Task: inverse folding
């Protein structure tokens, strides 16, 4: 059966069956955080079937994984969240819920050098959790409003975060003394939110959620080199493809995935995907992307070779952040 047809058949089958926990974790696996129902689900990408479901804290928006564990940011709903869920993927069980105390609205996540970096939006800071001890061993304030998404170099420095309310990007860099960090603020357009660094590490692309634009930043110089008017209604997330050929931007209010040629900076295509496309995950081989369609309770499967919608996978209420387990 062709791969595309197999995904579509599996998606239909998933509608008719409830999610169950199986004895074995599929490899590879797609992890999806359902923020409206406070769950993390495991999806077999070969079939589109949900093979497991784990309860998290309220409003899980983002997830990252290190192979054996998943880490979920419990952003909260009406009441601000202040916890991180650590999930054993082999047992499909939350083994620890880390209480962050006064740190509220944890959101963006990154997993550099064996540590979990997270944003605490309410507190205008970025923190770092040592998974081994379960303790926060570092935190740094941005002094900016709406510290939301985060990217971190695999070595742990720099750490880059978008500040939606202050229209800035914060770059945090570790000095020769591990305790000495520098902070640089880079002005952008209105409402910077989704961000990603090019595979060669040279450029930082940031999508603006409030003016339809996109900033391209020289990482070494820490300056905006170009601003593109995407004419999006509300850009939400942004991801490079592994070959650095395309950049994908989800337009939450328009319901589209915008595909940009990274070299020419020109728009290639807009794919209508449904209500409120949000989180984007590109698989390591660059063959497809998964987009959380929060308003339709499905994850869209996008064929990146053809730049076409290949299927939809029902995952639960309010899918958003995703992670890939090889």
Result:
């Amino acid at each position: 059966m062709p791969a595309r047809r197999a995904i579509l058949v599996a998606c239909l089958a998933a509608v008719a069956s409830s999610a169950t926990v199986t004895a074995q974790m599929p490899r590879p696996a797609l992890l999806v955080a359902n923020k409206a129902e406070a769950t993390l689900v495991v999806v077999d990408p070969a079939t589109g079937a949900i093979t497991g479901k784990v309860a998290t804290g309220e409003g899980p928006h983002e997830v990252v994984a290190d192979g054996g564990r998943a880490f979920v940011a419990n952003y909260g709903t009406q009441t601000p969240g202040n916890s991180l869920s650590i999930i054993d993927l082999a047992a499909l069980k939350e083994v620890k819920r880390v209480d962050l105390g006064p740190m509220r609205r944890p959101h963006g996540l990154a997993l550099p050098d064996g540590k979990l970096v997270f944003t605490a939006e309410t507190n205008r800071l970025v923190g770092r959790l040592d998974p081994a001890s379960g303790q926060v061993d570092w935190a740094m304030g941005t002094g900016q409003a709406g510290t939301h998404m985060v990217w971190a170099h695999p070595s742990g420095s720099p750490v880059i975060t978008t500040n939606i309310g202050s229209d800035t990007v914060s770059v945090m860099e570790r000095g020769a003394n591990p305790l000495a960090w520098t902070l640089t603020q880079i002005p952008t357009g209105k409402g910077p939110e989704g961000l990603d660094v090019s595979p060669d590490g040279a450029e930082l692309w940031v999508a603006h959620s409030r003016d339809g634009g996109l900033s391209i930043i020289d990482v070494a110089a820490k300056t905006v080199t170009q601003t593109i008017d995407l004419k999006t209604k509300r850009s939400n997330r942004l991801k490079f493809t592994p070959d650095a050929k395309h950049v994908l931007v989800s337009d939450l209010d328009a319901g589209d995935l915008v595909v940009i040629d990274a070299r020419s900076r020109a728009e290639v295509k807009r794919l209508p995907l449904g209500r409120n496309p949000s989180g984007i995950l590109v698989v390591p081989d660059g063959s497809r992307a998964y987009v959380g369609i929060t308003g339709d309770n499905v994850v869209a499967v996008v064929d990146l070779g053809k730049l076409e919608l290949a299927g939809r996978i029902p995952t639960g209420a309010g899918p958003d952040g995703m992670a890939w387990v090889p």
The mean pLDDT is 93. Residues 83 and 301 are 30 Å apart (CA to CA). The two ends are 23 Å apart (CA to CA).
